[in-house]
Structure formats: C-alpha cells, structure tokens
Amino acid sequence: MRTVRTSPTGTRPATYSMRLAPGELPVATWRLEHGWRPDGSFEEHAHDFPGLAYFQTTAGRLRTGRQVWPIEAGDLFVIAPGDMMGDIHAGDLAGVEGWGVFFTPDALGQDVPGAHLAWRTHPLLFPFVRGGAIGALRLRVPEPDRQGWVDRIRALGEELARRRDGYREAALAHLTLLLVGVSRLAADVVGDLRENHEPLLAEVFEVIERRYPQPLSLRDVAAAVNISPGHLTSTVRRQTGRTVQQWINERRMVQARRLLTTTDLPIGEVGRRVGFPDAGYFARTFGKLHGTSPARWRQAGARPTGGG
Questions:
Q1: Could you report the per-residue pLDDT of 201-237, keeping only the tens digit for each?
Q2: How far apart are CA 38 and CA 16, in angstroms?
Q3: What stretch(es) of the chain map to CATH 2.60.120.280?
Q4: E-strand spans in 20-97?
C-alpha cells in the first residue's frame, strides 16, 4: 500500500489517498517506536480514508484540527476521513510508542457499500462519522485492556507483512475486532455523533450510492439535493477533502474492483455496469487511479500472492 498526495488548495491542506497494488488488501499498519523522528511528509494534512492511532506510552503531543493533545498511555485517536491533522514539530513525537491502522471500507467485505456511505451505515464505522475537518476523536482504552490492543494490532501487522495462507481472513478478523473495540469505547459519544450527522452529506452520498451505475455529474447530484453546484462543491470538499466527482469515481472504482476480481465479465461490461459506457474512458480512468489496467488488476487478483 502507498499513499498519494494531493497538493493543498485554498484553505485545504494536502490530502492523502490510499493506493493499492493489484490483489492487495486495503489495510495498513505503521509503528511509532522510541526515538522515532518525523520526516517532511508529516505536514498539516488530511486523509480520505479512516484510521486509528493508538499510543502505548505517555510522551509527546498530537495536533488534530485546532487542538494540541498531550499524549497519554492508552490514548486512542479515531481519525475520520477529512479530519485535519496538524503539522508535526520537531520533538512532538519523540519518545512515543504506538501504532497506526488505516483501511478503506473495501476491507470489511464484498457487501459493504462504497465510499462515505459505508462509514454512515456500517455499525463498526459509525464512530468515524463526525462531519469531517474537526480533528480526531480522542478515546481512552482502560488500563486492563491496553496490552490486548497492542497484541491485536501487532497480530494484524504480522498477517499483512507475512501474507501466509489465510492471511486475508485473519487480517479481516483482527481489523473487525479492533473496530468492535472502538465502537464500544465510543458508545458514550454515539448520541452526539448521531445528532451531528450532517444530513446534507448523508443525502449526497445516498444519491451517489443509488445512481453511480448511471451517467452522473456534479450538476445531477446538486439538482437531486436542491442546492447549487458551487455550494455543493465547497461543502463536500470542506467536509471530506474530496470533490463530488472524485467521490462518484471512488464509488464506481470500488464496484469495478469487485467485479474484476469476482466475475469473468468482459472489461467493457464491467465499465458499463459502474457508469462508464465508453470502455476506453473506463480503462483510462481506472489506470490513472490505480496505476495499472483493469485487465492486469484482474490477473493479479486471481493469482495467489503468498496464500489467502
């Protein structure tokens, strides 16, 4: 897995998107170890995918949105798509030990809806829905449970690194248990989250989910939710870091990847079913977003890569 950076625009910081190799699981872990020093990539930024940051030690500070959090052992930060993460100053994370886990809704199975709608409708993803751009949600893992969190994240990281037989099922099981833990810790804030669920965004993504297989543009979505295209563009970009057209393409690509790896449909038919009647345009769009052609993606997905 690699991330792709979109340069800052206007008041928006840089945004990072997850890019996968063919056949790769959309899950990644990273480790913060004692003495770790950030490099230039840790500027003020946002992700367009959800993540977790869990800290084992009391040391340093984390900047999210407009807040600066002193890090304490047992801190768990729930990072929603679009949340602004502050730039890391020298020494901010010196002495910190912890883990990060990032993923996309694809990781939770074939039946999970695409893009932002999944974060609103899947019970394990609801803690990640807070309207975006406000900074990560800070939760506390009780002391008796902390070693279990470390063990679970380490086990997930090991499965992703070693890719032994059955690693996909094992990694999904570990990720699911982590998200169950997040949901339980966030139970006290669920009421507040539901009251601030950004009904406009919810309506926008419901339109995309319902109509992505058909011709669909920014103007079509704006008309469906009864606001101007300009206002819709600024609202969605501010809250999620992406444009409406990028979200339409993301939903289409989620389904395209599924059809390429689970069916024998011709490439042109796959494109048609996800809203691209022109097979050439589908192939170009897919290649631009994934760095490979639909045919090569299918071939790599069908070929065993270390088992699982």
A1: 767 877 888 899 999 999 999 999 999 999 898 888 7
A2: 16
A3: 2-195
A4: 27-32, 45-47, 51-55, 61-64, 67-70, 75-79
Which stretch of DSSP H or E encloses residue 138?
strand 137-140
Tokens found for residue 110: 């074939």
Which amino acid appears at position 42 of this protein? F
Whether 174 has a pLDDT exceeding 60, the answer reads yes
- Write out pLDDT tens, residues 35-80: 455 454 467 777 778 889 999 999 888 877 667 888 999 999 988 7
Pick the CATH number of 2-195 from 3.40.50.300, 3.30.499.10, 2.60.120.280, 3.30.9.10: 2.60.120.280
Strands 61-64 and 67-70: antiparallel
d(Cα 116, Cα 236) in Å, to the nearest integer? 11
Rounded Cα distance, 97 and 103, in Å: 21
Letter for the amino acid at 71? I
Fold adopted by 199-302: Arc Repressor Mutant, subunit A (1.10.10)
Q: Are 117 and 139 in contact (CB under 8 A)?
A: no
> What's the rounded Cα separation, in Å, for the pair 259 and 64?
37
pTM of the predicted model as reported, rounded to 2 decimal places: 0.61
**What is the location of CATH 1.10.10.60 in the chain?**
199-302
CA 11 to chain centre: 22
